[in-house]
Design a protein that fits this description.
Elements: H1 2-35, H2 44-53, H3 57-71, H4 77-88, H5 90-124, H6 126-138, H7 142-148, H8 154-161, H9 168-190, H10 200-221, H11 223-236
Helix pairs in contact: 2-3, 2-4, 3-4, 3-5, 4-5, 4-9, 5-6, 5-8, 5-9, 6-8, 7-9
Amino acid sequence: MDESAGGWKKFFRIAIVLLAIAGFLALVYFVLVWTGLWEKFNSVDKLRTFILDLGFWGRITFVFLQFLQVTFVPIPSTILTIAGSIIYGPLQGGLLSLSGILLGSVLAFLLGRVFGRRLVTFMVGKQTCEKWVRFLSKARYTFFFMMLLPMFPDDVLCLVAGVTSMSWAFFVITNLLTRPIGIFLTSYLGSGQIIPYHGWGLAVWAIILVAVGILMWLVTKYDDRIEKALMRLFRKK
């Protein structure tokens, strides 16, 4: 009887959490649509104008938007990061992006760790959850390289990592090492100041995209070998 009552209490706690998150998501979406901000997320120019119009509060809003895109709202992170570099410059924009993304990453991992697979499945879908849980359960060190490459779903990986045996220390250190690299590369390169989006720059961008695609394929194809090699390396140290 006690076990049954305990099971129902656990069920109700999980249900309340899911309802609270669903309510929060609905509220955020309503506010974004009502303010017209939702339409601006797919345009760097529109997003830039919106942030600049906020004046002093623009920086705080920008950090909050980066935090939201990691955890609750499917905002394109690349567009936000490039917009930040255009508005505040690559250095300051990169630092603001890094602040929001690191906070969001920690919260995503915490949600997975505290509430488990039911919440993660609710947020990303059963198939996606099971796919990445299987992968990260046997490829923990490969997670480091996946966080470096821009086309992997970093935000989903942070959430799913919370339901695996990955330690807090490994997760935090991985994010502290990898997130700045990706964010500042996006800030400096995405602004078009170093590699332009015309002329010779188009050829360079094509090479970069192909190289990234090959690296992603190698990581997913040979994850077992990469994992074993990294485990041997770390054990030697």
